[in-house]
Amino acid sequence: MRELKEKKYTEQSSFNQIKKSTNVIFNVIFLTLGLMCIFPLLFVFSISITSEEALRVGGYQIIPQEFSNAAYMFLWNERGTILRALFMSVLVTVVGTVITIALTTSMGYVASRRTFKLKGLYTWIIFIPMVFNGGMLASYVVVNNILGLSNTIWALILPLACSSFSVTICRTFFRTTVPDALIEAAKIDGAGQFKIWSGIVLPISKPVMATIGMFAAFGYWNDWFQASLYIQDKNLQTLQSMLNKIQENIEYIANNPYGGLSLQQYKMGMPTESVRMAIAIIIIVPIACTYPFFQKYFISGLTVGSVKE
Amino acid sequence: MGKQKTPQKAAKGRRNRWTKDDTELTLLSLPTLLWYLIFSYLPMFGVVIAFKEYKLAPGGHGFLYNLFTSDWVGIKNFKYFFTSNSFAMLLRNTILYNIAFIIISASVAVGGALILSNMRNKRGSKVYQTMMFLPYFMSWVVISYFVYALLTPERGYLNGMIKALGGEPVMWYQESKYWPFILVILNTWKGMGYGMVMYLASITSINQSLYEAAVMDGATKWQQMKHITLPGIKPVFVMMLILDCGKIFNSDFGLFYQVTGGIPASLYTTVSTFDTFIYNSIQSTAPIGQTAAASFFQAVCSCGTILFANWVVSKIDNENRLI
Fold it and tell me: What is the pLDDT of residue B15?
């Protein structure tokens, strides 16, 4: 340690740095942890490209014993079902994210205005749901029995469309980064609040919109829970709920026999194990490809969120 | 909804008068207010279901009509829930799992963030963070497939390894003794990237001149950590702790339900929590009032714990309280 301190003063680049050997140990630990975290992606992918025969004999292996594209060919043959589910997933994600951003930023903006007469009331409206909620059953009753949204796309979108957590992030962001003078100037020019929100505040608030939008988009893309409660209609299945359904019954997606096979023979011959994993891959790959680029928005959101009022 | 509450009295002066601005702001927030009303506040009144014996009235009326015409039964539903065989088990599981999750996740996140912040190769540290963030973005359904590939008795990877080493294969989905560990490991694994990155962000926001001054005074890395870094991340740590305590009666439904493969009977008493119990009740034909009682009990306890945790923090260290 003493040697290190000597070195610190002579070598500016390693000022107050840990020892090289410690650094190597830290790197080894984190490389292992990092690999553990991406391991499932590789493992599931390698199962999806292994032949059914090899899976039956040798079990699930990290290195495929025998390559096969049967799973992906099968999915291609059933592309009607798969593409419809994919379309639903994309639709829910896009529509949901847009609605979420609109609801959250408008509320966040209004609650951030210091001169607003109902500011105190709004603070409570936003705060109470953070500590108390009606519970799973009551939400189910509202969506299913009172609003009657079961088996509509809205049951997948609306219950997740807003949250006090993201409203708080927005409010803190607007309060700290949008200067009051800017709003006052716009008001003097005769702009109404809606115009100020959509024309001035939102364009300069892209970072927070990105944060909220990303949280929302990943939330919608990954949601299977709403679907499992509210959706029975096959045509409204998203990819996640399809994956959830075929856990029990893989034959559920085999509808489209070809090559003169009967439906029964077709179902018997389908590469069940690798098909499951192939669908999981279809879900993970878009996430794995996009999240590294949006990671910084998550982090900025987390840091803003942790700023107290 | 707020207009009636506005101070209309002229005596309050011009400054407090309701202006066009206020109207516009209220209108702008109206859609979100409606959302809050329907999806946050309306379910809170769902509590009345817990005090009723819900019956279908003859004539095929709507849900609300049936609810209003159902009989009040006082606390009968709660009594039934509290005296059922499941209650003690659910309470124990939910709380113990959460305590384990909170302690282990927080230690891993803080420890990891400390190491990452000290790493000499900043680019490497960024790459590790990105890698570790991946599980956070995977749904429990996807993870349950991965777990299945590891654990399924016949073809699973773990049993393959055990067999290769000459051991006896384990029927993972039937042996309840392993599951507390499996669930804790998975929960830590999924959340560690998120936790580390959050604490790392709070470490990097600490004023660097503090460290420079400490080095000039001859402080070791260890001393710097103890006297600068840890106090620096305390506010975030306390906030996370309060929020986690508020969730101590809730559970990550996907973890308990999906990963176990829908909770097989052999694991029922080991991995059931309030959330899985309520979910199963919704899907089954259990009387809706009893499910509502369980749901309401959970919501009240959550509210109580978060306020209690906040109160404790305010007694110890008033600066860091959340509310």
Answer: 64
CA distance B177 to chain A (A): 24
Q: Do A137 and B36 touch (CB under 8 A)?
A: no
* Residue contacts between A and B (CB atoms, under 8 Å): 307
User: By the CB < 8 Å criterion, does A208 face chain B?
Assistant: no
Between chains, do B25 and A116 touch, taking CB under 8 Å as contact? yes
Return the exposure string of A152-181: e unless at least 16 CB atoms fall within 10 Å of the residue's CB, then b: bbbbbbbbbbbbbbbbbbbbbbbbeebeee
> Least CB-CB distance to B31: which of A60, A106, A118?
A106
Window A:52-81, CB contacts with B under 8 Å: 55-56, 58-62
Highest-pLDDT range among A120-134, B13-27, B86-100:
B86-100
Closest-CA residue of B relative to A279 is B142
A202 at B interface, C-beta within 8 A: no
Backbone φ, ψ for residue A147 (5° rounding): -85, -20
ipTM at complex level: 0.85
Superfamily of domain A70-305: MetI-like (1.10.3720.10)
**Residue pLDDT tens, chain A, 309 long:** 445 544 444 444 556 778 888 899 999 999 999 999 999 899 999 999 988 888 888 888 888 888 888 889 888 888 888 899 999 999 999 999 999 999 999 999 999 998 899 999 999 999 899 888 888 888 888 998 889 999 999 999 999 999 998 998 899 889 888 888 889 899 899 889 999 999 999 998 888 898 899 889 999 999 999 998 899 888 899 999 988 888 777 666 666 677 667 777 777 777 788 888 999 999 999 999 988 888 777 777 666 655 444
Closest Cβ–Cβ partner in B18, B115, B128 for A31: B128
Find, in chain B, the residue whose alpha carbon is nearest to that of A241: B141
More confidently predicted of B1 and A143: A143
The reply to whether residue A137 touches residue B291, judged by beta carbons under 8 angstroms, is yes
CB contact under 8 A, B282 and A137: yes
Locate the domains of chain A by residue range: 2-48, 70-305
Domains defined for chain B, CATH in brackets: 87-320 (1.10.3720.10)
- pTM (2 decimals)? 0.86
Q: How many CB atoms lie within 10 A of CB A146?
A: 16
Are the beta carbons of A142 and B39 separated by less than 8 Å?
Answer: yes
- Integer Cα distance of A62 and A41 in angstroms: 11
